Amino acid sequence: MEIRALQVKATEIRMTLLKMIHRAKTGHTGGSLSNTDILTALYYRIMTIDPLHPKAAERDRFVLSKGHSVESLWAILADRGFFPKEELMTFSQFGTKLIGHPNNKVPGIEMNTGALGHGLSVAVGIALAAKRDGKSYRAFCLMGDGEQAEGSVWEAAMAGAHYKLDNLVGIIDRNRLQISGTNEEVMGLDPLEDKWAAFGWNVVSIDGNDMGALVEAFETVPAVSGKPTLIMANTVKGKGVSFAENVPHWHHHVPNDEELEQALAELTAELELYSQEGQVS
Predict the structure, then answer these.
(1) Which tens digits make up the pLDDT trace of 6-42?
(2) For residues 199 and 154, is the Cβ–Cβ distance under 8 A?
(3) Residue 260 CB neighbours (<10 A)
(4) What is the tens place of the pLDDT at every residue in 66-115?
(5) Could you give the CA distance from residue 12 to residue 1 in angstroms, rounded to a whole number?
(6) DSSP 8-state assignment for residue 97
(7) Which residues contact 49 (CB under 8 A, 6 or more apart)?
(8) What's 203's domain CATH number?
């Protein structure tokens, strides 16, 4: 997909995930909205994947370490054809496979996640296995910024650099908010880029809601041979919904009927704007 098509797709995914959360009356709205652009770039442009062969040996592997923000991932996997779209409306309902965290009984999911701090360690193992087996696939791991307070993240970071895993890409959804407040109030992280660089990673800091910047960053990996890459994706929590952006309680706030209607109206207007710009060009 080209950049404009990716932007349109990300907006459509945001609309879908809001409907899922509203129907289920549960979910993590803010973080799913902030990570949608990242996942859209990966799944529609960057990663080598095949919905018809989800276990293909040479597929790229993706681990959603911030597993609570799964709604955008479910919406994308369904849209890509890993499972029927109709199943999305069973999200978090009794008996569904589409629970509130990634579930590896669903095609396209590599591992169950949700306990923060575990994903990068597994991604390191995946990337190391590829190196030792002489395979070309890559490992991508999306983490939250609040997750950076977990010590296991830094153990994995040290191992990734030690083994020179330039087929490993860590991504931080840097929206600066977590369930109980701002990152700096809960557990100060800055200077976060410098810390990752000190651990031996090639650090690329971008606007994580800018599709062009995301594609450019991902397409240059590995920018430094023998080093894993850390994409510091600076995002807006609640991105795309004006009254949810940078509002802490939208971490897991469920939109009511009126809020859903207003959010969908804003996103529809965004789609119309993209359409008008396309006609002009």
Answers:
(1) 999 999 999 999 999 999 999 999 999 999 999 999 9
(2) yes
(3) 18
(4) 999 999 999 999 999 999 999 999 999 999 999 999 999 999 999 999 88
(5) 14
(6) S
(7) 43, 56, 59, 60, 80, 108
(8) 3.40.50.970
What does pTM read for this prediction?
0.97
The per-residue DSSP string of 160-226 comes to: HHHTT-TTEEEEEEE-SEETTEEHHHHS---SHHHHHHHTT-EEEEEETT-HHHHHHHHHT-SSSTT
The terminus-to-terminus CA distance of the chain in angstroms comes to: 17
Question: Distance between CA 206 and CA 77 in Å, rounded?
Answer: 25
CB neighbourhood size of 93 (10 A): 13
CA distance 192 to 45: 27
> Can you read off the two tokens belonging to residue 267?
């996103």
Cα distances from 209 to residues 133, 169, 232, in angstroms, run: 35, 18, 11
The boundaries of the domain holding residue 204 are: 3-280
127 phi and psi angles, rounded to 5 deg: -65, -40
Count of positions (residues) in the chain: 281
141 three-class SS: strand
Backbone angles phi, psi at 261, to 5 degrees: -60, -45
Which residues, at least 6 apart from 122, have a Cβ–Cβ distance to it below 8 Å?
63, 110, 111, 141
Give me 218's structure tokens.
């991902």
Strands 168-174 and 177-178: unpaired
- Among 196, 229, 199, 200, which Cα is nearest to 214's? 229
Task: Please list, in sequence order, all residues whose beta carbon lies within 8 angstroms of the beta carbon of residue 275, skipping any fewer than 6 positions away.
Answer: none
Give the total number of structural domains in the chain: 1
